[in-house]
Write a structure and sequence with these properties.
CATH topology of the largest domain: D-Maltodextrin-Binding Protein, domain 2
Structural class: alpha/beta
Strand content: 25-35%
Order of helices and strands: EHEHEEEHEHEHEHEEHE
CATH architecture of the largest domain: 3-Layer(aba) Sandwich
Number of helices: 7
Number of domains: 2
Length: 225
């Protein structure tokens, strides 16, 4: 099997998923090559609709007339702080504790910011927002520079926490998760190379969850067997 497949990937997933996907395809489908584009979920969905990408990793989306989705997993959102804060992956942090710190947040209108604002809506503390940005890498840089704490999906900080560059803990009270899905065009026949990438993504995600490298993530019930 051969082919070039364009894959759209959320920035927050790229560090954890892309290299694993490339390695798995090289082993099982060496004739399939990737073209990887990163962006926000809304952009990725538009690119899928416009045939800019053949397949995309998206979050919190359901089937549409132009797209069908395959559930990949659900992952918790984490509080992220400098290493000295001592946050532990095994000890959830409450939103009230988080809101006591200056925050580095995504800009208003960003999908992650919408999730954050909904989750904190029932808490009578207004955040002190030190910096707003549309870049996950800038969020992490600002935390490292001491400008505040932030909130990111587990996949976006797993390696940083493991390597001690940042500390992190899943958020609770309320716990907040996002669903990650594979988006595919709703066509009569998916090209074999695209189907190979989809199948490989499912396998890569399971391996990352089972090994603990994708922390506080869980597979859909039908894929836990």
């Amino acid at each position: 099997m051969t082919g070039l497949v364009s894959v759209g990937v959320l920035e927050s997933l790229s560090e954890l998923v892309v290299s694993e996907l490339v390695e798995a395809l090289a082993d099982d489908y060496p004739g399939v090559k990737l073209r990887v584009l990163t962006g926000f979920s809304g952009y990725l969905q538009s690119w899928l609709d416009d045939d800019v990408v053949d397949i995309a990793l998206l979050y919190n989306l359901s089937d549409t007339p132009a797209m069908r989705v395959v559930p990949l997993l659900s992952e918790r959102l984490w509080a992220v702080a400098p290493p000295g804060a001592g946050l532990q992956p095994s000890v959830p942090l409450t939103w009230r504790q988080l809101l006591g710190e200056p925050l580095v947040l995504p800009i208003v209108g960003h999908g992650l910011r919408s999730l954050i604002d909904r989750a904190r809506g029932g808490i009578d503390l207004e955040p002190v927002v030190a910096v707003q940005t549309n870049s996950m890498s800038v969020q992490k840089q600002m935390v490292l520079a001491g400008h505040g704490w932030t909130v990111l999906p587990a996949a976006g900080v797993a390696q940083d926490v493991q390597d001690g560059r940042l500390s992190g803990a899943p958020l609770g009270e309320p716990a907040l998760s996002r669903s990650v899905v594979i988006g595919l065009p709703r066509v009569t026949r998916i090209p074999p190379a695209v189907e190979a990438v989809s199948v490989t993504l499912l396998r890569v995600a399971r391996g990352l969850v089972d090994s603990g490298r994708w922390p506080s993530a869980s597979l859909p019930a039908e894929r836990r067997q």
